[in-house]
Amino acid sequence: MSTRPVHPAAAGTLSRRSLLVAAGALPLLAVVAGCTDAPPGADAVTPAQVDQLAEQVAVQEQLVAAYATAFTAAPDLAAAATALADQAQAQLDRLRAAAPSVTGSATPSGGTAPAATGDPRADLRAQVAAAAQSHATACLDFTGARAALLGSIAAGLRGQDGQLA
């Protein structure tokens, strides 16, 4: 095994390792500084976005109602999917908290609920898929925490769709 001679760094110069460590820490410092010094109103919503959030609250309310309808029509589905209904309700609660001044239910502009087929599980899956698509589409019009919330809800609903299959 050969050894390389070690040349001590001259006083006042950085070693290659020190330079790499410092360069690696810079992005982390920038992120930390960015998280703590957000400009005022950085996550403010426009009036149009307030309306979009109200629509997304209405979409989620329809989904929660669809779970109740499906559970009434198919008690075996209720036993298997109660956790999913609870998740949809929790998502609705988070949406309501993120939507400034949403007082009542808005009517979703994307149309009505998917047509009923008579199969409670299939109808619920269609409603879950429609809500996921609505939230994913709306997510693109937001930034920050609200975009993350809508995207997270959309992803969670896509997972629910798969579990209901």
Task: Please describe the topology of this protein.
Elements: H1 16-36, H2 47-73, H3 75-98, H4 120-139, H5 144-164
Main CATH class: Mainly Alpha
Query: Major sheet, described briefly?
Result: none
CATH architecture level-2 label: Up-down Bundle
Rg over alpha carbons: 25 Å
Question: Uncertain segments of ≥5 residues (pLDDT<50)?
Answer: 28-39
Strand and helix order: HHHHH
State the secondary-structure class: mainly alpha
- Gap from first CA to last CA: 61 Å
What proportion of the residues form beta strands (DSSP E)? Answer: under 5%
Query: Please, how many helices?
Result: 5
Q: Helix amount, in percent?
A: 55-70%
Shape: flat
CATH topology: Ferritin
Region (Disordered): 99-119
Biased composition (Low complexity): 99-118
Keywords: Signal
Signal peptide: 1-33
Provide key terms for this protein.
165 residues, mainly alpha, 5 helices, 68% helix, flat, signal, TAT_signal
